[in-house]
Amino acid sequence: MSAQRRVERHAFIVGVRPERREEYLRLHRNVWQQVEQTLRDAHITNYSIFIVGDVLFAYYEYVGDDHAADLGRVAEDPVSREWWTYTDPCQTRIVEERTPGALWQPLEEVWHLP
Amino acid sequence: MSAQRRVERHAFIVGVRPERREEYLRLHRNVWQQVEQTLRDAHITNYSIFIVGDVLFAYYEYVGDDHAADLGRVAEDPVSREWWTYTDPCQTRIVEERTPGALWQPLEEVWHLP
Question: With an 8 Å Cβ cutoff, are A110 and B50 in contact?
């Protein structure tokens, strides 16, 4: 990564339904290649999903020029949409809705140490 | 960052006491320089803290060879310990205790896209 390249850090939180927790973990042991390629094509990098109890946390770095437009392209990818038919039922929103209709809700950055 | 360098990704979650939320945010607008230097010296990099509602999430990358030993050195730094006398009262553990006595509890990585 070039030190000059602008990087946006994004973080999201969602709950995992307890009865679907193992299914969610199993799905993520073999994420579909096209799902990952679509994210790369959308300038999303260093993407991690973490879990504790029934809480999922996601962190990624966006290195493109239009995050919303790139996410829109991801949302139009048929393979990603099919993938979400498996993952969405595992998830439940656990914080106040800031992104309407989304399961994964964004966090705000409080502090950053490069 | 060298692509060869081994990087451990670490994530932690804690609650913020609603009545202390603004105080926590205010403290993090001016984190003490020595607190940040102690983290750098402990091989901790790309460290972000995020908030949504009353939930705080932390993500950092560890680039040293002994995470526990480096955290132990951070825990012995008098300036960091004084900093925590301001931040700890803002926080409350919100998940099952996996690190005994810690407010910030670790998450497990489910999936990573480089």
Answer: yes
Residue A54 within a domain? yes
Interface of B with A (CB under 8 A): 1, 9, 11, 13, 24-25, 28-29, 31, 36, 39-40, 44-53, 55-57, 59-60, 95-96, 98, 105-114
CB < 8 Å to A51, chain B: 107-108, 110
CATH at residue A79: 3.30.70.1090
- Mean pLDDT of all residues belonging to chain A: 95
Q: Which residue from B29, B44, B105 is facing A52, i.e. has the nearest CB?
A: B105
Alpha-carbon distance B62 to B46, whole Å? 9
Query: Is A2 a domain residue?
Result: no
Q: Is residue B9 scored above 60 in pLDDT?
A: yes
Q: Is A94 exposed, middle or buried (0-12, 13-18, 19+ CB in 10 A)?
A: middle
| Residue A2: both structure tokens together | 């070039």
User: Which residues of chain B make contact with A1, given a CB cutoff of 8 A?
Assistant: 1
Instruction: List pLDDT tens digits, range A53-98.
Output: 999 999 999 999 999 999 999 999 999 999 999 999 999 999 999 9
Asked whether residue B61 is domain-assigned, the answer is: yes
Assigned domain for B2 exists: no
**Looking at this predicted complex, what is its ipTM?**
0.93
Can you tell me the distance from the alpha carbon of B56 to that of B15, in angstroms, rounded to the nearest whole number? 6
